[in-house]
Write a structure and sequence with these properties.
Pfam families: Rieske (PF00355), VanA_C (PF19112). Keywords: 2Fe-2S, Dioxygenase, Iron, Iron-sulfur, Metal-binding, Oxidoreductase. InterPro entries: Cholesterol_7-desaturase (IPR050584), Rieske_2Fe-2S (IPR017941), Rieske_2Fe-2S_sf (IPR036922), VanA_C_cat (IPR044043). GO terms for molecular function: dioxygenase activity. The chain has 2 domains: 5-116, Rieske [2Fe-2S] iron-sulphur domain (Rieske Iron-sulfur Protein, 3-layer Sandwich), CATH 2.102.10; 123-346, Naphthalene 1,2-dioxygenase Alpha Subunit, Chain A, domain 1, CATH 3.90.380. Helix content is 21%, strand content 32%. The chain has 6 helices and 18 strands. The protein has a 7-stranded antiparallel β-sheet. It has a 4-stranded antiparallel β-sheet with strand order 2-3-4-9, with no helix packed on it. Strands 5-6-7-8 form a 4-stranded antiparallel β-sheet, with no helix packed on it. The longest helix is centred in the C-terminal third of the chain and has 31 residues, at 278-308. The protein is globular, with a radius of gyration of 22 Å. The relative contact order is 0.15. The structure holds FE2/S2 (inorganic) cluster and fe (ii) ion (FE2).
């Protein structure tokens, strides 16, 4: 799906050094101009294919490290060595970029369809009312496996036992809703009385059992939000929606295909408590990275299994898979519609 916004990087990753990252099979080079704007260009010199990311920045231009072809921020060649005339076709592709919510979003498809207002939001990540930790792990598996994984959190009980998983996660049924018009999948699991996993016990300081809510909101293809609410057992939000007794964690994943069989797994954890507390931040970063790596190891295995399985293998799905199946259906619909943002007129009945 090329006509979509994808997270290419965290803003902090892009500076005055040339930065290479492959998105949807396309090698891109990123940098920040002297005025602070992020630029994305194809990472291949038009002359003899030398990677521009292995070249150097001169002001706001890239000077190719092989023979010196020089490109401006729009990818137009402004200098070639040994002659005054610059060939008309001397340009590399440039890509629309938007920096928002600490992410650098890039649009790989047709430029005239790149509408920044269609980028889904994760405002907690640069909101001073929250403290965030984040990272990115390379995944040697197709992005669809990560979508499946995140849409069904019952795996927390088994794959992440002792970290974020407790028996109640797998034992509590989910509710799934799909906003067909906006193409968003919601999956909720509300546990009234659950064991408190280490992840939350240590970060919130709650001792004893908890009320634990998991409300997933998936904006296909790239952005996944898990609104997590934890409180001492029985403590609920007030009727007016205020929730002084609750601890809120916004878990954000950006799921960006690198190639057909590999994925950039961006993860972030934003909290509205223990603000600025470095000990809590270090614990959550370390613990969440461990959890992410447990998924990475499992999904890398699945990718290998898929590569060797015979044609026509049939999976078996059960109730816990409802959210994942809804996500697959929307992704398929988007791919068939040429990846235009979902509109009711394009809805394909399931
Ligand atoms: S390959 Fe870039 S200038 Fe020759
Ligand atoms: Fe997981």
């Amino acid at each position: 799906m090329r006509n979509q916004w994808y997270v290419a990087a965290y803003g902090r990753e892009i500076g005055r050094e040339l930065f290479a990252r492959t998105i949807l099979g396309e090698s891109l080079v990123f940098y920040r101009t002297t005025s602070g704007r992020v630029v994305a260009l194809a990472d291949r010199c038009v002359h003899r294919r030398y990677p521009l990311s292995e070249s150097r920045l001169e002001g706001d231009t890239i000077v190719c490290g092989y023979h010196g072809f020089t490109y401006d921020q729009g990818g137009t060649c402004v200098f070639v060595p040994g002659q005054a005339r610059i060939p008309r076709t001397a340009r590399v592709a440039s890509y629309p970029v938007v920096e928002q919510d600490s992410f650098v979003w890039v649009w790989i498809g047709d430029h005239d369809r790149a509408d920044p207002s269609s980028i889904p939001r994760a405002p907690w990540l640069d909101d001073p009312a929250y403290t965030s930790v984040s990272g990115m792990e390379p995944l040697a598996a197709r992005y669809q496996l990560l979508v499946d994984n995140l849409m069904d959190l019952s795996h927390e009980t088994y794959l992440h036992g002792g970290y974020i998983g407790t028996p109640e996660v797998a034992n509590t049924p989910i509710t799934t809703e799909v906003d067909e018009d906006r193409g968003i999948v919601y999956v909720s699991r509300h546990m009234a009385d659950a064991e408190c996993p280490l992840f939350y016990a240590k970060s919130t300081g709650i001792e004893g059992r908890i009320t634990r809510w998991q409300d997933i909101e998936y904006h296909p293809p790239c952005l996944y939000l898990l609104h997590s609410r934890i409180a001492p057992v029985g403590v609920l939000p007030n009727a007016d929606g205020s929730d002084p007794g609750g601890f809120h964690v916004e878990v954000v994943y950006a799921i960006t295909p690198e190639t057909e069989n590999s994925t950039h797994d961006f993860w972030a954890v934003a909290r509205d408590f223990a603000l600025g507390d470095h000990e809590v931040s270090d614990f959550l970063a370390e613990n969440n990275r461990t959890v992410v790596m447990q998924d990475v190891v499992a999904l890398n295995l699945l990718e290998k299994v898929i590569a060797t399985e015979p044609e026509g293998y049939q999976e078996l799905s059960i109730n816990i898979d409802t959210g994942g199946l809804a996500a697959r259906r929307i992704l398929k619909r988007m791919a068939e519609a040429g990846a235009a943002p979902a509109r009711p007129s394009e809805a394909v009945p399931s």
